[in-house]
Design a protein that fits this description.
By secondary structure, the protein is mainly beta. 10% of the residues lie in helices and 46% in strands. The two termini are 29 Å apart.
Length: 270
Amino acid sequence: MKISNIILRASFYMSVGILLLGVSSPNLFAQDYQDTSDAREIAYKVYNRKAPSNGESDMTMTLINKKGGERVRSLHQFFIDLGEEERQIMFFTAPADVKNTSFMNFSYEEADRDDDQWLYLPALKKVKRISSSSKDNEFMGSDFTYEDMEKRSPERDVQTLLRSENFNGEEVWVIEATPIEEEQYTKRVVWVSKEKSLPLKMDFYDEDGELLKTLTIEKTAQIKGYWIITNQVMRNVQKNHKTVISLDNVQVENGTDESKFTQREMERGL
């Protein structure tokens, strides 16, 4: 789903990362999409949708523990779609203990090619590459993992259309995606808006088949003809912990170029 750009783009055939970026194109393929009952076809139409070629936004990440205690982090992010490759980079701007930390993700069209990810920690003055074995780790203490930040090809899953229903006033398809190879999640269940072709909710199941996390899209807005996810919540139901992501000052098609997406830029910061 090319909703992927960390927060203008997360994963049902995109990546949570994309939902994180929050981008979606309105009513693309709407007629056939509504006429089909094939889950795989739905997945591909979402994955291959038109999305902004570049953009940026401010982001607020709020971590809320089971007692209601909050930790708030401020970031600025950029993304660009180069056709066969999508890039995203984010810079932490506050508070002081995470300021100047940066994260970068490169996603590729090849279904069998993993995303490349890097994290820059200013205390170490070093850019660290995120290994495949570390992608199930939490991202900066949030309820998102590094894998959640990736764009995901439909080729990695077997899709099943479970049903149609009404969700928060919108008609949706409910689709189950089961990974072909062993991964940290045994399945994902996704609620997809028939009108917007946009995921509204996603459940993640652990290795025992128990519900682990739920991602819910709380708010969307249209900017330059694109649906933008402006508020989303990832809840870890087993830990009773959640992460709220909000976007402000969203700009799309603003001329962001690929020179922004380098390890040197990660080290330089904003």
